Amino acid sequence: MLLPQFGNYVDHQMLFDGSVTEMPYTPARLWRQRPIIYDAIWKNAYGRAPWYSVKIGGTGSHLIQRGPHKGKLLAHRYFSDAKYANPFFEFVHHASGFTDYASIVADQSSLEALMVNAETMAEILTLGQKVRIVTQIKNKGSRTGNNEAMFVGGVTTSANEFRGRIPVVFKRIMNTKGAVDRKDFNQALDVTFTLFLRRQPKKEEYGHYWTKVFQRNAELGNTMALQAVLIYVTLSPEFVYRMELGLGEEDSHGRRLLSPQELTHAINYAFQNKPTFGVDEIDTVDVYTKDSEPPIKQVMSTPRPAWAAGHSALVREMKDGKLKTRADVERVVRQMLDGKQNSWLTNHNRTYLSTPNPRILQFFREFFGYYKAHEVFKDVDKFTKREDFKQFTSRAVSQLEYDTDSLVRHILAEDKNVLYELLTTDKVVASYWNGINPEDQIKRAGGKEEYSKTHHLQNYNLDPFEQAYDKQKSEDASVRQNGKVFRAPKRCGILTQPSWLVAHSGNFDNDPVRRGKWIREKLLAGIIMDVPITVDAQIPDDEHKTLRERFSVVHDAECWRCHKKMNPLGMPFEAYNHVGRWRSLEKEKPVNTKGSITHTGDQSLDGDVQDVREMMEKLAKSDLVRQSFVRHVFRYWMGRNEMLSDSKTLIAMDQAYVDNEGSFNELLVALLTSDAFLYRK
Questions:
Q1: Which residues make Cβ contacts (< 8 Å) with residue 154, sequence separation at least 6?
Q2: DSSP secondary structure string, 381-402?
Q3: pLDDT tens digits, residue range 320-337?
Q4: pTM of the predicted structure, to 2 decimals
């Protein structure tokens, strides 16, 4: 019951009716490291497999001044591709969509990947990064290409060299003949803990690693014994998991406040996808000492370690003793939320990861699930000759995802009635269009008509000539920076964005079941049972019938008991085809967009709807929907499902949102200063 898919099993009414008086807390826990944070620690420093291509003779930018190849030109290229396995997979269940839950553990496969990575890391920190250097010496008959296999007629040699910087104390230990001085070992352990655990060792840990790890491997040599210590630390629970034990003071309810260091981690991970603590300056030495040709020496020499990183601002607050109380937490949280954001546009150069607080936009991506649109196969090759589909090109799906990212950020920037706007807005953003229709593109498309049909704006049923403007010459600074926000009468919130519709569609048609299930679970706090393994969940193909007509087969009693909770919620989206463009006809018949909201327990909410606009307006104004949204905010940032004891926290979050005109920032402040966030038990 701790996994994401069981979140809605907790009684919704009891969570919000005030009947639960127990003081909120979170059970003391180990929270598996987030995959993206492991990437931030590991990828550049220990997760690359570099090789270096050196070509002598022919063309080049450097003239060799000495040796047997004096007078020849030298060309070189350095390649450093990531090559390692992230041991922490992302578990995503459709009922939650969230990828970071404390109940997800590191399993055997995680341990195996950790061990392989740790062995590579230990070699890099003691010997340096192994680089395969391929040298190609051309002669008069040589023919070359872009890779080794295309080099013909010359001489090719391959050798391994080491580059990078290693801690001075590591080098001193490896160069020691015989027994290692205990002070040197303690200093080496300080460095190791700084690199991976971001703290200094405790007194008993010095003795443990000296006797249980280093001394037991000393007979293999000082280098391998030191490598064993490095491996041991990166396989320890503290590196694999975030420790939230509650090391602060205990209150009268038996709850323990998070310590300043635990608070620093918790707040940082609430907003960021990078480590909380950096690495204090460590004395290092360059492992590459050869007197090579200047360009080679420049590439192989390392002025700064790859693992060097600065501390976050939160660490400075902690070290200054300003992160101990609830008031301290509220102050730093508001500082992080109040950061000025003039730009809300996202694209492939400015993804959600580059936003000031990436975990906020990531919540909406995972909650709505529109970022998965690119995972749904669409036969775009056939769309080139199909009306109402020509605009959906091979690049459209990624652009639509960025459009929705930008729209969400635009709504968050205004921070007013956020949920209502997300569910009902008719605004759309075209993140890759500058408002101009170039003549050369019109000509290549075959004229204005074809250009218009294939334009990205047609995904929103908008004409590029009617909406044209000059982004760079606009008098509005926000338009110059972000582009224009368009009004699209056929759209009603994120659920009618093409990215969401595609992400919740099939390969060749709409999927009202998946869409209705999403609404039931995410907005109505409902539960849908998994399809029994004995059921063949397929609808018959019939090229003469609409999808709604084909779905008539699920009205049989054994099917309808579950489908009645989904299909009526998903059918209003038949106003759009399966790539998200609005339509009035399907199979040459008028589209039927009627649906109904049922089985919510709220008589004011239940009832028939004529179209998606009416349905979304009713949902957006509902207390149940707002409270369900609050529950998902809680799950995402707490990394767990609600317990009945969280009732006071959830009510406070909901009240903060309502009292502050639908401010998402105030909702988040209420959560991150709550007892559920601050206390462990």
A1: 57, 136, 137, 138, 139, 142, 144
A2: HHHTTSTTTTT--TTHHHHHHH
A3: 999 999 999 999 999 999
A4: 0.92
